[in-house]
Amino acid sequence: MDRSLYLAMSGAKQDMYGMQLHANNLANVRTTGFRADLEQARSMQAYGEGLPSRVFAMTERPGQDFSQGSVMTTGRDLDVTVEGDGWLAVMDPSGQEAYTRAGHLKIDQTGMLQNSNGNLMLGENGGPIFIPLPISKIEIGKDGTISVLPQGAPPEAMETVDRLKLVRPDNRDMYKDVNGLFKSKNPGEVFDADAGVTLLNGALEGSNVNAVGEMTSMIDLQRHFEMQVKLMKTAEEMDAASSSLLRLG
């Protein structure tokens, strides 16, 4: 009975983890450039003192869905979308280089270019991008080149200030950090800029989360959780019945 109770208990706990993962996906159904987390469950042997005779359930996040989300036209000069494979390089809160598909950009009061999450955008030299204010116009080219028109200057006086760092690593070499940004699986490694990555200006890539699919997965996990609870109740009843037989003996 203890084996079935242990398996059901660990299964119910992992079902809750699975529901949390799908709930997080569902909460980001409108997040720009979001990549849905995948979830799977498998059985694991419990090793320790004695024989490995116990098995427990484990839910894990094997990776993300890297399919492209729908592209929404905004017409805004500071909105960009990576066409096909590729990533925008940003600086994470710890100061390290990370990667994202969120291209809703803005300029703060000091002239630093950042995305809507507050991450500083990195230029092709690996440093943050500074926009000399004040400006009348800003353009981001297909190759990530940033050009500005200083305030009061004639229309033909556009100046190139920097170029967005665009990378195209193998998705298998990346992992999603706790802040939602992607990084290299090799600690401290940064990817080189790829001139073949192109941008679409005036558009944003939406989340690739399938809301219906996430809701269906949550319903399935909830039913599975209820089944695990019933199994724990059955194990308790079987234990009580065994104790009654021992008392009769």
What number is the mean pLDDT?
A: 88
Number of strands: 17
Count of alpha/pi helices: 2
Q: Which residue ranges are poorly predicted, with pLDDT under 50 across at least 5 consecutive positions?
A: none
Q: Name the helicity range.
A: 25-40%
N-to-C order of helices and strands: HEEEEEEEEEEEEEEEEEH
Give the overall shape, derived from the CA principal axes: elongated
Radius of gyration: 25 Å
Main location: other
Domain Flagellar hook protein FlgE/F/G-like D1: 82-148
Organism: Photobacterium alginatilyticum
Keywords: Bacterial flagellum, Cell projection, Cilium, Flagellum
Briefly characterize the structure:
26% of the residues lie in helices and 28% in strands. The chain has 249 residues and is of the alpha+beta class. Strands 5, 6, 9 and 13 form a four-stranded antiparallel beta sheet that branches. It has a three-stranded antiparallel beta sheet with strand order 10-11-12, with no helix packed on it. Strands 1-2 form a two-stranded antiparallel sheet.
Fold and architecture overview:
- This protein is α+β, with helices and mostly antiparallel strands and 249 residues long.
- The chain is built from two helices and 17 strands.
- Strand 5 (87-91) and strand 6 (97-100) form a beta hairpin.
- Helix 1 (2-27) packs antiparallel against helix 2 (211-248).
- The longest helix is centred in the last third of the chain and has 38 residues, at 211-248.
- The protein starts with a helix and ends with a helix.
- The mean pLDDT is 88.
